[in-house]
Amino acid sequence: LPPPPPLQPRRPPPPRRRHRPRLAERAQQAVLGDGPAEAAGGGGGGGGGERAVDGGRVREFVGRVAEVLAEVEHDGEDELELTALFRLVVDEAAEGKTVADVIRELSRDDRVDAAEAADDAEEGENAMSTWDDWAEILLDEAEDLMDDGDVPGAVRKYEQAAELNDSLAHVALARLHLLGIPGVVDANYSAAVEHAKSSAALGNSDGQSLLGYMFSVGIRDGRDVLVEKNMQKALLYWIVAAEAGNMYAQMVMGYRFMYGLDVEENMELSAKLYAKAAQLVVDDPDMDDFLEKQTALEKIRLNDDIHKPSQDTEKGEIIEYYKHAADRGDVQAQVALAQIYYFGAHGMERNVDLARNYFERAAAAGNPNALSNIGYMNLKGLGGLEVNNQTAVDYFRQAALTGDAAGLNGLGYCYLHGVGVERNPEKAADYFKKSADKGHAEGLFNFGVLLMQGTGVPKSVAIAFVNFLKSAQRGHVHGMYQASLLMMAGEDGVQLSYTQAAKLLKKVAEHGEISTLLSDGLESYLDEDYPGSLHRYLLAAYAGFELAQYNAAFLTERSPTVPLVSNPDAIIYEMYAHASKQGNLDSTMKLGDLNFEHAPTPRYPAAAAHYKRAVDFFSAEAAFNLGTMYLLGLGVPQDAHIAKRHFDTAATLGVDAKYPVFIALLGVRLSIAGHHALVEAVYDAYRAVSRALGGGWVTVSHV
């Protein structure tokens, strides 16, 4: 178990990019064979990184640099700035110059000891090392350009590294060409497929998992099928990638073993795969900060009414309302605004300084929520505040005196770690327990940790598990993870359950960075980049995200003019089926409708089965449609009495069922009275009413 976390998600410093020595130093080691040294001179010519590079020619040039240097007249032991040299060699190679010409054009002061260079380059192994280093430097430069927003520049760097057969560059280009960036990078499915194949062939697990996705959906460009849908090949690539530790592939296979999709259902394997993916989430030092930002992630289910302008207007109105109320002294509005700015909710930019301002105003009025949050911000030095442990304790104590669960949890943290007070594990356990008794997720988890460790309280794994499980039920990611591990172990009074563990671990894994596919998919949809939106949702869908499955089906169904996948109808049905398995009622209804309306021959029994399942989840529309099928004998025995029972259920479950049920019951009475010829006339009347009301109940409108 990790040490007890702070009262809010832990916030360690971001990981530093691993240090890579300057290219000059590493190239000098490779070509000259000596250790790092201060580079002299500077040599001319950058700009080579902006051109397409012939990988074979660069390999030849780099391998011969030292050899050619030996032929060049030189004075003294001056060392060349090799960064400039290699850039110049690559640049001029594209112009058709020989490497000898390039070297000879350098000034006398920029030359290297030729004899030593020639000796060390004999076997060519060091040149190969330089070759790999060059690709790595290009990747670094590409990442920096991406961070700066220069996507075209980054693409050029990736292309150069891909020429050097770098697997990371290939997979980066595969993603960019698959998803595209409107106005910046056009989608190029042919290039995406080739780069994914190259990366996979080089053993890159990201490339393998991406190629698995391509085989799972089938990729086409207009009428040209680039990748045939082949689930067996997809499974092969995903399994290989999962074994290599790829998180996306682990989630895909964990999901497929959970529901027995093209593999035999195996909850133990599902739990173990999800455990590996979940561990990558909880071990990520940036995870807690990511979770805070993700709190504001809006999980929106697509529909015809969603479009960007109305959403922005609505959000703006919400913010303006809160601002107006807050300025009038409304404490709840101040707290709400503080949380909006702290998490960056409702489309607002995250602004911790403004959040602190509103929290302080609410805290001055004695609001317990604000007191706890200001205590936390003092503890962590957020919002322009310097770390002040004593002030943090004071705020926590004020909040705790009101019985605030977060304040109690904050005091527990301070006593556990001796922050602003003398360390006292027993007091810490007492405060954590009080917070837990109030149902606070963080307090429940922290008290569970102390119970697991026997810190400040007698050790009890069984009671710790109960606390972890309660925190998990409140959405606490660490609580989900710890409860799952205990269920998988099945020891110390905790019942073994791979099924429950797998379900919790799935939720943990879905809190990782792969979840950004959902927000990116929505953003692409609102920007009317439907191809990019669809691929993002499909990627998330195969990883098991139910929302993505529904949205992918919706997009494929509503955008038939976007030829992205080899068999759109199969994708629509598959995605709705996945979402239905995970309990989405709308998807279950859609499956009923798709079977009812299936061309050329409706599949009425399958439609009835889906409607029955939807009725179990209290769907008025499903009850109505099922009543219609019994009334007309479509896929079920014709029975007016059972039909009436379903119509009555529909009337009970939904107020919108009033007019459809009235007309349907009229049809039932006619059917019972033997006037079967008049039933169709009744439904003609229904269709007229349906049109007048602007819609209707899907199935009956097609009868």
Task: Describe the structure using short key phrases.
703 residues, mainly alpha, two-stranded antiparallel sheet, globular, disordered N terminus
- Record the strand order, biggest sheet: 1-2
Helix content: 55-70%
Q: Runs with pLDDT <50, length 5+?
A: 1-87, 102-129, 693-703
Mean pLDDT: 79
Share in β-strands: under 5%
Task: Outline the biggest β-sheet.
Answer: 2 strands, antiparallel
Tally of alpha and pi helices: 35
Q: What distance lies between the first and last C-alpha atoms, to the nearest angstrom?
A: 60 Å
Basic shape: globular
Radius of gyration, in Å, reads 32 Å
Structural class: mainly alpha
Total beta strands: 2
Describe the structure.
This protein has 703 residues and is mainly alpha-helical. It is 65% helix and 1% strand. It is built from 35 helices and two strands. The protein has a two-stranded antiparallel ribbon. A hairpin with a 2-residue loop joins β1 and β2. The longest helix is centred in the N-terminal third of the chain and has 23 residues. The protein starts with 22 loop residues before the first helix and ends in an 11-residue tail after the last helix. The N terminus and C terminus are likely disordered.
Q: What topology emerges from the helices and strands here?
A:
Blueprint: H1 23-31, H2 55-69, H3 82-94, H4 99-105, H5 114-120, H6 125-147, H7 151-163, H8 167-179, H9 189-201, H10 205-217, E1 219-221, E2 224-227, H11 231-243, H12 247-259, H13 267-282, H14 287-294, H15 308-327, H16 331-343, H17 352-364, H18 368-380, H19 389-401, H20 405-417, H21 425-437, H22 441-453, H23 461-473, H24 477-489, H25 498-509, H26 516-526, H27 530-542, H28 546-558, H29 568-581, H30 585-596, H31 604-616, H32 620-632, H33 640-653, H34 658-672, H35 676-692
Antiparallel strand pairs: 1-2
Helix pairs in contact: 1-6, 2-3, 2-5, 2-6, 6-7, 7-8, 8-9, 9-10, 10-11, 11-12, 12-13, 12-25, 13-24, 13-25, 15-16, 16-17, 17-18, 18-19, 19-20, 20-21, 21-22, 22-23, 23-24, 24-25, 26-27, 27-28, 28-29, 29-30, 30-31, 31-32, 32-33, 33-34, 34-35
